[in-house]
Amino acid sequence: MERFAETLLQLPVLYSRCGELLQGERTRALRWAHGGRGEGIVLSDALVEARSELIGLAVSWAALVVDEARPPRRPRRTVPALVDFLLQHLDWLGAHPAVVDAIDEFGEVADLARRAIEPVPQLIEVGRCDRPGCGHMVYAQLATSGPGSRLVSCPAGHSWKPHQWLALHQRLGQRRPVRRGEPVA
User: Fold this and answer.
1) Model-level pTM?
2) Which residues fall within 8 angstroms of residue 156, CB to CB, at 6 or more apart?
């Protein structure tokens, strides 16, 4: 039950972090000039889904406790209040026949939120590195963890800046042997 309690304690933080990312992170120390970067809501299905699943699950399990354990008060419908309520009734939940389901479901929703907050980058093979003596595969990342991340690189540490990507693509494409009668790209 200790691990279950730890998972529950993480939920308000995960829920809040998803909300912060949806609102768009702003660097408070910088002031943007007129016409600079716009601020606003970030549309992310993964973040919205994580928040929705998280509060829905907490509401569902709190409702089970209310219906079956009949506590004197119902929790407010906020993630911190619901988690606090579930932690107060952790012994009751631990004795419930569906406790294994609760542990699994809360673990899954916490993992869903973590993946939404820190998505695992998807990689696409671009071709072999054209740097002398390297030959490693070059990958393009479709998702990054933030500014400054290398988007096109090889495992040896060679990377290409956005203005170099087209030239790299053309160089790597030219290495492919062209067969007779085949159109040249």
Assistant:
1) 0.62
2) 129, 131, 134, 136
